[in-house]
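hey
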């Protein structure tokens, strides 16, 4: 089992780097969101403050390097580079599922390299929902936390992916009870995240009632794990390739899921297809506290190109600050109250779900 998981992790990395695994026809929804340009911002660019305090931690910007990998030799290099990036920019880093190292402790080094590289960084641990439904409890959770001295912990939801793996575990009966037990005993913030299919407001309300500390909606528009499993399944199980293609674009677009979650009132991470600083700004403006990015960082981290990672991060932050400058936003709270227009498919989806988009267009008092 441990070797199987390790091999799967490597396959996922290579497929994400070499193949087109992003959503096909369904987009994030950010293309339907436009800021109202403010021609007289009355602020200086160097006054703009992108910092945020969340989980009792002060970050320099709202960017989260989102969960990618762990559990294979190449993961050590990737996580080391990502931790170095998180340390230099004082942002948060989420690691991939630690299940491989729970099964085989000899793989712990592929995860704890992040803590060794960035002793003071805010690092988030990770295990999957199917495991806490039956197999894992606080003993395994605490092992995973101790492994990386985690500052927060994520339980990831990947129901779609589990259905599309020949070796998948589509066992979700008991997950809610498992989350309830973990929340009762865990000593650090507990996050629940999707893995590319979005979280609807019905589940957000349920998670809020469980007193989950934050949710990462991880919507459609970026990496499709159905697509990843398509490339893995082609030579393994006869019917799986066609089934994975059927569900390639399954789920809730990122912008829609972000706005739905924002109506519930919970610490909110928006991810899924975020590809530039303007996307980050839009995600914050529609309710996110942090914005997760993963795929753009994967290839340079894998290729050990730290300079490229640094250039990407500087680009994202510069684009975010330009969007803030042009919307008269000195800080992220101002950005959350900036005026914007929502149109197209995103507007149709939201209004069908009973969420009005009119209030976004005249929020700013200035």
């Amino acid at each position: 089992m441990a070797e199987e998981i390790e091999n799967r992790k490597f396959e996922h990395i290579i497929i994400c780097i070499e193949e087109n695994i992003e959503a096909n026809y369904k987009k994030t929804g950010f293309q339907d969101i436009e800021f109202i340009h403010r021609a007289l911002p009355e602020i200086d660019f160097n006054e703009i403050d992108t910092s945020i305090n969340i989980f009792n931690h002060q970050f320099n910007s709202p960017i989260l390097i989102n969960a990618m990998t762990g559990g294979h030799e190449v993961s050590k290099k990737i996580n080391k580079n990502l931790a170095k990036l998180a340390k230099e920019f004082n942002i948060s880093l989420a690691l991939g599922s630690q299940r491989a190292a729970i099964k085989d402790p000899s793989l712990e080094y592929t995860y704890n390299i992040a803590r060794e590289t960035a002793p003071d960084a805010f690092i988030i641990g990770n295990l999957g929902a199917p495991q806490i439904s039956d197999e894992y409890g606080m003993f395994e959770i605490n092992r995973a936390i101790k492994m990386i001295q985690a500052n927060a912990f994520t339980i990831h939801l990947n129901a779609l992916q589990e259905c599309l793996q020949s070796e998948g575990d589509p066992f979700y009966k008991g997950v809610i009870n498992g989350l309830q037990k973990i929340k009762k005993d865990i000593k650090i913030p507990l996050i629940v995240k999707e893995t590319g299919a979005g979280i609807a407001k019905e589940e957000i309300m349920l998670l809020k009632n469980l007193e989950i500390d934050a949710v990462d909606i991880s919507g459609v528009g970026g990496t499709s794990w159905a697509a990843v499993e398509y490339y893995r399944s082609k030579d393994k199980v006869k019917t799986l390739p066609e089934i994975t293609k059927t569900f390639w674009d399954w789920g809730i677009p990122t912008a829609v899921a972000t706005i739905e979650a924002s109506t519930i009132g919970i610490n909110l991470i928006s991810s899924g297809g975020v590809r530039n600083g303007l996307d980050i700004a839009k995600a914050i403006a529609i309710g996110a506290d942090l914005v997760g990015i993963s795929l753009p960082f994967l290839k340079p981290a894998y290729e050990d190109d730290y300079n490229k990672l640094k250039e990407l991060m500087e680009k994202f932050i510069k684009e975010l600050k330009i969007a803030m400058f042009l919307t008269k936003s000195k800080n992220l709270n101002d950005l959350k109250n900036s005026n914007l227009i929502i149109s197209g498919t995103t507007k149709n989806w939201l209004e069908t779900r009973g969420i009005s988009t009119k209030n976004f267009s005249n929020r700013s008092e200035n």
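The chain has one domain: 2-194+201-362. The longest helix spans residues 306-325.
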